């Protein structure tokens, strides 16, 4: 089957942060220096060639952008200053916009005005909801569950989580289709399906393979283990910071959505209470990792931080403010400052809710699903091919 070529693709990708890909002359230095590249998956060189020739369909099914963690080695060694690491980052933004059927992701990445306006609108709606419907505000003590009853917040959180899950999973399914319906996916299915002929098939691959390899998704999501495979010692620190941010944010999401009735209590837990310790870990993980990333971008101390898309800055700032305002709420409770705590609580949600509603399904944080999902699908395809 022929490929449709889009000669304007490399120009279109400039809006997603791909600025210098045209200068690449495919020498292969980036592929040679990358410790995660392999003979079967030679990146970044291959996908840069795809975008140079306008092979959009090939890009859509390519796993390579999701295998890159942007350590910066490829950009440092590039003789043409094509900045292949930033190209891969820009391709992840572009692919995210293609997976998203709503078109919101594309607007996020190509329009600063849209991103800021969308976040501001959601923040104002949250503030307005509290202004109109908050409960009593006792001044003799901090009583968050009187001001904002946790059963009401819990219901709101669950509705929000359901909506986010719908958008995120429907977009992830589009990624799944792109990968498993690609030419290589069909070849794996053709080799495995007819021979085995047992059980139900999904995109030509037995469901048993999907089930058996499910542990790959869980392992990659929880540990980001692929990042730790970068060989140079300094990359271990980058992996640890990445893991701290991801685990801290994921844990905080679980605490404030699934565990709000235990996390938001008017009584103050003892220091060694598991809920309190988990909250401390999540807050520390986010603040440390995000502060490290912000400082690196300000100083431009690594090649991976020399170029920052506007969405990168917005995401980092929102995440930092969410964690910091959470600390202020906790201090307000410890110091028994009722009115201060209530106002900071509202400000906290005016920051956190827009980030959850918009960043999780449509922007940067969606990468935390797409990356392990791609690694999982690659494992599924490999197992299907082996069975042939």
Task: Sum this structure up briefly.
The protein has 388 residues and is an all-alpha fold. It has 20 helices and two strands. It has two domains: 9-99, no CATH class; 104-376, no CATH class.
Record the SSE blueprint:
Elements (H helix, E strand, L loop, with lengths): L8 H4 L16 H5 L11 H9 L2 H6 L2 H4 L5 H5 L6 H16 L4 H7 L1 H22 L10 H4 L2 H31 L2 H14 L4 E2 L2 E2 H6 L1 H10 L10 H24 L2 H4 L10 H26 L10 H25 L3 H25 L4 H21 L1
Antiparallel strand pairs: 1-2
Radius of gyration over C-alpha positions, nearest whole angstrom:
23 Å
Count the DSSP helices.
20
| Order of helical and strand elements | HHHHHHHHHHHHEEHHHHHHHH
Count of domain modules = 2
Uncertain residue ranges: 192-197
**Distance N terminus to C terminus?**
22 Å
Query: Level of helix content?
Result: 55-70%
Q: Largest sheet at a glance?
A: 2 strands, antiparallel
Strand order of the largest sheet: 1-2
Task: Write down the overall mean pLDDT.
Answer: 88
Shape: globular
SS-based class: mainly alpha
Tell me the strand percentage band. under 5%
Number of strands: 2
């Amino acid at each position: 089957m022929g490929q449709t070529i889009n000669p304007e693709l490399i120009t279109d990708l400039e809006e997603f942060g791909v600025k210098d890909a045209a200068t690449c002359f495919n020498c292969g230095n980036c592929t040679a220096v990358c410790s995660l590249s392999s003979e079967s998956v030679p990146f970044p060189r291959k996908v840069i060639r795809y975008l140079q020739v306008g092979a959009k369909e090939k890009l859509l099914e390519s796993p390579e952008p999701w295998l890159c963690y942007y350590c910066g080695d490829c950009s440092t060694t590039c003789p043409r200053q094509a900045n292949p690491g930033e190209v891969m980052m820009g391709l992840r933004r572009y692919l995210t916009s293609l997976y998203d059927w709503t078109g919101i992701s594309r607007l996020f990445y190509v329009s600063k005005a849209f991103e800021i306006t969308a976040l501001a609108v959601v923040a104002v709606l949250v503030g307005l909801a509290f202004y109109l419907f908050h409960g009593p505000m006792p001044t003799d003590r901090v009583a968050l569950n009187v001001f904002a009853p946790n059963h009401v917040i819990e219901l709101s959180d669950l509705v929000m989580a359901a909506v986010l899950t719908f958008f995120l999973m429907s977009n992830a399914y589009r990624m799944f289709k792109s990968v498993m319906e690609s030419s290589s996916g069909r070849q794996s299915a053709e080799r495995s399906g007819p021979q085995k002929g047992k059980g139900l098939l999904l995109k030509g691959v037995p469901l048993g393979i999907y089930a058996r390899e499910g542990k790959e998704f869980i392992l990659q999501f929880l540990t980001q283990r692929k990042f730790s495979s970068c060989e140079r010692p300094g990359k271990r620190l980058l992996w640890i910071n990445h893991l701290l941010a991801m685990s801290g944010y994921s844990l905080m999401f679980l605490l404030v959505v699934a565990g709000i009735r235990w996390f938001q209590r008017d009584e103050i837990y003892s220091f060694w209470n598991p809920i309190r310790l988990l909250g401390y870990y999540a807050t520390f993980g986010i603040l440390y990792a995000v502060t490290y990333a912000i400082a690196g971008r300000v100083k431009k101390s690594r090649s991976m931080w020399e170029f920052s898309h506007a969405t990168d800055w917005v995401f980092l700032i929102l995440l930092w403010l969410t964690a910091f305002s959470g600390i202020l709420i906790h201090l307000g409770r410890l110091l028994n400052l009722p009115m201060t705590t209530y106002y900071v609580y509202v400000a906290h949600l005016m920051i956190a809710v827009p980030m959850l509603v918009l960043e999780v399904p449509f922007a940067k944080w969606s990468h935390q699903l797409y990356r392990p999902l791609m690694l999982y699908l690659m494992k599924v395809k490999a197992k299907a091919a082996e069975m042939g």
